[in-house]
Specification:
The complex is a heterodimer of chains A (372) and B (192). With 372 residues, chain A is mostly helical. Helix content of chain A is 81%, strand content 0%. In chain B, strands 4-8-7-5-6 form a five-stranded antiparallel β-sheet, with no helix packed on it. Classes of the chains: A mainly alpha (372), B alpha+beta (192).
Chain lengths: 372, 192
């Protein structure tokens, strides 16, 4: 029994004895819970693990004999393995074993990517290495769309992140084409109505967005990323009703926006602050102002998260707040008077926060009480 | 939709994915075979190299004289890393290919003593404006070898004359066709 079912079962017994839920109602709830399938069954997980192990076995066998094979034999082997994976997938789909079929699709995508790399090696091709990853990602996206495969979609997001990382490493460019590929893959995630896919979309975009400051304008333009994060957070907070009417994402969107904005502000203060850059050195006053702004924005995010019952955003803001405080402490460590001043101000801020949370909680509790 | 019809559609979708991915792989192979078969052949000598760097893992790193391009030969705008460049090579009286011009667009060079190679810039003139020489990669710098053969090839450029037989396509793409040791073609690449 799942953790959620155990919880509901316990509450149900209490509600039933209090007379809030009728016997028929309780039976209906139990029936609905029993009919619900666990999203990731143990069998599916084991099937995917099995596919991975098969892959490793096949790879080491091929690697042992690769040198002795002719090019034609190698090509036949690669294409044969590709079709075998998709053949098994089709057979499993036809037998309604979607979980296992998806594992086979993932195997097919892995063979496809390995084939691109091995063919490039066989013919001493070099070209632009990220292109190979892009072709791999597009193959995975095609599988995700045509086969409605969530696993293939997840692979696409991972490959897109690798692709853009390679392009940036080679070209020192912001790599805008990534946005086109990302948008197409995210559209596929929306179309598949797969919520974890939307989280992957957010993570994939964040992995592109956070280092963006290193690649645009004067190559230290983290303020742009910070501004994007703050703007996205404001949109997610203020536009929540409009966004949620279209797609229920405003709450996680706020959490990701806070994370991206904070990452950029953190980079400005502690990473790209003159230690490794050549040009930027923040004065104590500038750093103080930036730290104050960061903490104020995080407090605002916490306030909003508590008001709208957004747990994800609240946790992100908490962790960001703690990270900022610890980083400030480490940087300021030196003079005793600074340290004591620092702890005093941190204590004032945290106490104020506690007071704020307490007030908010009190204002909300009677309201929710009246609603039930 | 009847179950059998749905099954048929699923099988067709899977086949479409497998076909599309196979088509990409086939395109890679066919394009390369065409280039190797019909591309114009030139021979580029391999420069002696720091032996520690020559052999890495399972491939040999090949360094050519044409890898280094005089900066004065580049026209116009600053060059960013990984920009596509077309390098015109000219055959000297001694029969050696030398870079004489660099351009951003493909120029037709039909003479027997001139040929254009497509490459990518390895440096950034905006970041390193004072360098006198730029480096270009043509995609023929890595030669994958069988396990254990690396050290043997590694010693070659120091002891004997090593050159690479290169096939050049109409668009300037270069491909390794074989290795030439002391003037004799060895390690010729089979097409399939």
């Amino acid at each position: 029994m799942s953790w959620y079912r155990t919880m509901v079962e316990r509450d149900l017994a209490r509600w039933q004895s209090a007379g809030w839920v009728s016997d028929a109602g309780a039976a209906a709830i139990r029936a609905e819970l029993a009919a619900r399938k666990s999203p990731i069954g143990a069998a599916g997980v084991l099937a995917i693990l099995g596919a991975v192990l098969f892959g490793f076995a096949a790879m080491s066998f091929v690697a042992a004999n690769w040198n002795e094979m002719s090019k034609l034999a190698r090509l036949t082997l690669l294409v044969g393995a590709l079709w075998a994976c998709y053949g098994v997938a089709a057979w499993l789909f036809a037998r309604q074993l979607a979980g296992f079929a998806n594992a086979a699709v993932l195997g097919g995508i892995a063979v496809y990517g390995a084939s691109i790399m091995l063919i490039a090696q066989m013919y001493h091709m070099e070209g632009n290495p990220p292109d190979a990853v892009l072709f791999w990602a597009l193959g995975a996206l095609l599988a995700a769309i045509l086969l409605r495969s969530n696993a293939a979609l997840a692979a696409t997001f991972v490959l897109l992140a690798v692709w853009t990382g390679m392009e940036r490493g080679l070209n020192v460019t912001a790599h805008w084409p990534f946005l086109v590929a990302w948008a197409a893959t995210t559209a596929a995630a929306v179309w598949l109505a797969w919520r974890p896919g939307l989280h992957l979309a957010a993570l994939c975009l964040a992995s592109w967005l956070v280092p963006l400051g290193y690649y645009i304008l004067d190559l230290h333009a983290h303020w742009v990323v910070a501004a994007i994060g703050v703007a996205a957070a404001v949109v997610a907070a203020a536009g929540a009703p409009v966004i949620d009417r279209w797609l229920r994402v405003s709450q996680p969107l706020l959490a990701y926006a806070v994370a991206v904005g904070f990452a950029a502000l953190f980079t400005m203060q502690f990473i790209d602050d003159g230690l490794i850059g050549y040009r930027i050195r923040l004065t104590a006053g500038e750093h103080g102002a930036l730290a104050g702004l960061t903490l104020a924005l995080l407090v605002a995010a916490m306030y909003w998260a508590i008001r709208t019952d957004n747990r994800g955003a609240l946790w992100v803001a908490y962790i960001a707040f703690a990270t900022e405080i610890i980083a400030l402490y480490i940087k300021m460590l030196g003079t005793l008077i600074n340290t004591s001043l620092f702890f005093l101000s941190a204590a004032v801020v945290v106490t104020a926060l506690a007071w704020l949370a307490y007030r908010l909680h009190h204002r909300q509790t009677p309201a929710t009480g009246a609603a039930t | 939709m009847s179950p059998s019809r749905k099954t048929l559609l699923t099988v067709l979708a899977v086949a479409a994915v497998a076909l599309a991915q196979t088509a990409v792989l086939a395109y890679m192979v066919i394009e390369r075979i065409q280039l190797l078969r019909s591309g114009r052949e030139i021979v580029l000598p391999v420069l002696p190299y720091d032996p520690r760097d020559l052999f890495r893992g399972e491939y040999v790193f090949l360094n050519y004289a044409v890898t280094r391009v005089p900066l004065a030969a580049i026209d116009g705008q600053p060059i960013r890393r990984n920009d596509t460049l077309y390098v015109t090579l000219e055959k000297s009286a001694e029969g050696e290919w030398r870079p004489v011009a660099v351009s951003r667009t493909l120029k037709r060079e039909d003479g027997p003593d001139r040929i254009v190679l497509k490459g990518r810039a390895l440096w950034d003139t905006a970041l390193h404006p004072t360098w006198g020489v730029g480096t270009v990669r043509y995609g023929i710098e890595r030669y994958f070898v069988r396990q254990g053969e690396g050290p043997k090839l590694e010693a070659l450029p120091r002891e004997r004359k090593l050159a690479v037989l290169v096939a050049v396509g109409g668009d300037g793409t270069a491909a390794i066709k074989g290795l030439i040791i002391d003037g004799k073609l060895q390690y010729e690449e089979p097409l399939l």
